[in-house]
Amino acid sequence: MEILKIGKDLSVNPSSLEWQESDLDSSEGSGRNVLGDMFRDRITVKRKLSVTFPPMLTSEMSRILKAIEPIFFDITYPDPKEGKNVTMNVYVSDRTVPVYCFDKDANEWLWQGLAIEFIER
Length: 121
Known about the structure:
three-stranded antiparallel beta sheet; DUF6711; single chain
C-alpha cells in the first residue's frame, strides 16, 4: 500500500513523512500589549509534509520530479489529525537530489535523498 499519492497517477512510498501544522497570524493584528500579554489574529492554519525518499533509479526519480512540476497540485496522504487519508492542494519549494552511484544492471544512475516539503496552498 502506497503512503503518498501525487496528482492522479503517481503513488509512492517515501522513507519518511513528517506532518506539521502551523498557525498563520496577521502581522498587524498580533503582538503584545503594554502589559506584556500576547494577542493574536490567527488568519488560518496550514499543513506541511516533509518527505524523504529512499535511493531510486533515474526513471523512478524522473516520474516524481515531473509529478511535482506544476505550481500547485494535489497530494493524498495519511493525516494524523483527521485520522484518515486526506487530499491537499500543495506547492513545493527547492528540490535537490544527490547522485549516489551508477547501477550497471539497470544501466541507470541511482539517486538518493530526495527531500521535498509539500506546503498547503
